[in-house]
Amino acid sequence: MTSSYKEKKVIGIGIVHELTGLSERKIRYYEERELIFPARTAKGTRKYSFSDVEMLMEIASMREEGVQTTEIKQDMNKAQKRKIRDHMRRGQLNAQFNMRK
Amino acid sequence: MTSSYKEKKVIGIGIVHELTGLSERKIRYYEERELIFPARTAKGTRKYSFSDVEMLMEIASMREEGVQTTEIKQDMNKAQKRKIRDHMRRGQLNAQFNMRK
DNA sequence: CGTGTAAGGAATTCTGACACG
DNA sequence: CGTGTAAGGAATTCTGACACG
């Protein structure tokens, strides 16, 4: 059930700029590099979630350390795989648990 | 600590319209009647929180039942007082608890 | 590669008002 | 009282491009 406020794409780019301190140019560029995935309204304006905002802040600090967008993307993929692996392991444990009762 | 995503004023009126189904006219009118209190950006555009969105949905259903905005506001005040009363009672209990240990 | 900027258009939002009831 | 709408202006956002490096 991933329908929390944190994931809802409702924030305009102007507010994201205020929240993160990043220029709109940068925000759009990180999307182009596929580091974030805003939604679009019917007429094409971008909408971000609080999750996206947090990701942007992480991107910002990595960029400050000189990390390139490509590397950031690789890190994201690793983190994602770790998450899936953990998720599956938990599923297995639950399966075992259910077998026993 | 009321700094959760739910309270952050980051949503434009267009999205609030999509989320609630209310016309922008209605949304602005309920503000005029002091039922909701959006923030304003530096240049004057309204920003709402998820909390405001929820309140709007409650307002919407009360209006459908024919409840007038004035009455809705009174209900809000009652709910608010109840909240404060409960909050204080809890504070008292905590105080007593702390006395004993 | 990452980011700034000027350009022109399209979409958004704002206010005050008139309308109806 | 509650809500729609047309009006005109101001602010927002979008894309594609040129610039620098």
From TrEMBL, chains A, B:
UniProt keyword list: DNA-binding, Repressor, Transcription, Transcription regulation
Keyword Plastid: no
GO molecular-function terms, A-Z: DNA binding; DNA-binding transcription factor activity
The keyword Chloroplast is annotated on this UniProt entry: no
HTH merR-type domain location: 11-79
InterPro entries found in the cross-reference section: DNA-bd_dom_put_sf (IPR009061), MerR-type_HTH_dom (IPR000551), MerR_fam (IPR047057)
Pfam families (alphabetical): MerR_1
SUPFAM superfamilies tied to this protein: Putative DNA-binding domain
Name used for this protein in its record: MerR family transcriptional regulator
Record organism: Salinibacillus xinjiangensis
UniProt lineage: Bacteria, Bacillati, Bacillota, Bacilli, Bacillales
